[in-house]
Amino acid sequence: MSALRSSPLLVTLGLLLSVAWSPVQAQSHPGQAQLVSEVAQETGKDPDALNALLDHAKKQQSILDAISRPAEGKAWKDYRPIFFNDKRIDDGVAFYRAHRSLIERIGQQYGVAPEYLVAIIGVETSYGRMPGKYKVLDALVTLGLYYPPRAAFFRDQLKVLLSLPDNHLAGPLNTLTGSYAGAQGWGQFMPSSIRDFGVDEDGDGHIDMLNSLPDILASVANYFIKNGWVSGGPVAVRAQPDHLAKPITVKDSQPQWSVEQLQAWGYAPMQPLDPGLPSSLQSLEGEDGSEYWITFQNFYVITRYNRSPLYALAVHQLAQAIASGVRRADAEQ
Question: In what residue span(s) does the Transglycosylase SLT domain sit (predicted)?
């Protein structure tokens, strides 16, 4: 062996270079190595396969732009027409009637009013026509690894996605598409929701949120029930405040006062209600000024799907309009 080849300095440099250029150390995204290590340790999945998936995911500026201007940032008078309009109502009535037997069976099985199952997928994806065009991996990599304001949440969703068994996905993970936030299927389920609430209703061994209507509807119903939906309970009722109504600040939609207490504070429900029902109050900017709504447990459950009270009220009003439209169509036959 020559003196050159046996030099300790060169050996050390060679080792350092080999480590620096090792494929194991390379990562396409900040935090990728740690994420892959966690998923591999917790699930036994192949780190090389996980890295290959993430290496092909791309940071998308359009996703960062979209999350900075959510529809829920609008006033109620501007938000409502997006999801509550003649076309969405008519399409919802047609969808309900086309799949009536399945929708009503699942509604009865889970104890959820069937029109709310239809309204959810109506608001989320226009009854399956608009499930999203972003690659789910791109969305969750972008938001989980490049969006500090909500990185913790989206990184966790990315980790769940990488951890899900194949039979919980509508197809190969690198082909899945959805919303800019990484939600999938007609009901726009995030990975943790697929894990926690997804249902294989058609019994084919897969939870398919994109191609199986039984799985889609049952998963939405299961989501509602497991978040506390009250079968047959009210959702929201318009209230009329008097001139001495007490100003109320509400942090979320969780019921915290009785209807009787809200009445005592000057908010009279515009239809008869059990005075002992737990309730809350929402004040929204409508087309004709302030609107006040007494809301209940089922309204709160809808906000577990999407935290915005605007979203929950849009789902409620769309559901009511669909139910009314179905009854009217039935009467005309």
Answer: 33-320
